[in-house]
Specification:
The protein has four helices and no strands. It is an all-alpha fold and 104 residues long. It has one domain. Helix 1 packs antiparallel against helix 3. The longest helix has 31 residues.
Length: 104
């Protein structure tokens, strides 16, 4: 691989990571996926009321934020390991997508 192609590939990967880390939460906030605004009493009422999809959307929103946080932490671990020149530690939740993160 030529130096120019290698650098362009690195720049593209950096832009994709920045897009994930910065734009993902902005999109979630823009569309109103903010599960932390619900109080525990509202969740209890959602569990006992007829299903209108609100609880499912709340769970999907919480999962979306959890996955964004996990992905961001795992990217940071990979970057820090690369900067230090060591292999990244194997974290329990990271095994399924590790080759993709390491390539980026």
């Amino acid at each position: 691989m030529s130096t120019t192609r290698s650098r362009l590939s690195g720049l593209g990967a950096t832009l994709l990571i920045c897009l994930f880390v910065i734009a993902y939460p902005l999109v979630l906030l823009t569309i109103g996926v903010t599960p932390w605004r619900e109080s525990l009493s509202d969740i209890g009422a959602l569990l006992t009321s007829p299903d209108d999809g609100t609880l499912a959307l709340l769970l999907v929103g919480a999962l979306a934020w959890l996955l964004w946080g996990l992905g961001t932490v795992l990217f940071a671990v990979e970057v820090l390991a690369t900067v230090r020149g060591v292999s990244a530690p194997s974290l329990p939740a990271s095994d399924c997508r590790r080759p993709t993160r390491a390539t980026l």
